[in-house]
Amino acid sequence: MPYRVTFVCTGNICRSPMAEWVLRHHVEEEGLDVEVDSSGTGGWHVGDGADQRTVAALERAGYRSAHIARQFDAAWFDGYDMIIAMDASHEKALRSMAPNWQARGSIRLLRQFDPGAGDDLDVPDPYYGGRDDFDLVLEQVEAAMPGLLKEIRSALEDR
């Protein structure tokens, strides 16, 4: 059974699909048995593709991308080993949906995996910004990947 990870942001068109495709790239490269996807706390963009600026940032960095936005459903908690919020508002929304302490324990903030993040654990929403804002999000996502991959490898070894 694969290890399952999902990323959650607001509308599932900017931050979470970016993190999804960066992690997908790394787990595929390493041949890890991990399934990765993403969703949003809100349903405004359900059925839409990723924001074109997200796709462009990913492509500039050499990542693939294909995405259809969806909204996180509380019934999904049992299906994931790790649920990764992109900022504190997403973490709070997920915790309020969690059916029990075990589900709440699966929720993490992405930047918790970046030792250089300090106290600023929110990945900023680039939606109302420009190219530089999307590139910053990609930098923050990439900075968290080594720590996240270490945690995933450890969990897979413990299985």
From TrEMBL:
<feature type="active site" description="Proton donor">
    <location>
        <position position="125"/>
    </location>
</feature>
<feature type="active site" description="Nucleophile">
    <location>
        <position position="9"/>
    </location>
</feature>
<dbReference type="InterPro" id="IPR050438">
    <property type="entry name" value="LMW_PTPase"/>
</dbReference>
<dbReference type="InterPro" id="IPR036196">
    <property type="entry name" value="Ptyr_pPase_sf"/>
</dbReference>
<dbReference type="InterPro" id="IPR017867">
    <property type="entry name" value="Tyr_phospatase_low_mol_wt"/>
</dbReference>
<protein>
    <recommendedName>
        <fullName>protein-tyrosine-phosphatase</fullName>
        <ecNumber>3.1.3.48</ecNumber>
    </recommendedName>
</protein>
<dbReference type="GO" id="GO:0004725">
    <property type="term" value="F:protein tyrosine phosphatase activity"/>
</dbReference>
<feature type="domain" description="Phosphotyrosine protein phosphatase I">
    <location>
        <begin position="3"/>
        <end position="151"/>
    </location>
</feature>
<feature type="active site">
    <location>
        <position position="15"/>
    </location>
</feature>
<keyword id="KW-0378">Hydrolase</keyword>
<dbReference type="Pfam" id="PF01451">
    <property type="entry name" value="LMWPc"/>
</dbReference>
<comment type="similarity">
    <text>Belongs to the low molecular weight phosphotyrosine protein phosphatase family.</text>
</comment>
<keyword id="KW-0904">Protein phosphatase</keyword>
<dbReference type="InterPro" id="IPR023485">
    <property type="entry name" value="Ptyr_pPase"/>
</dbReference>
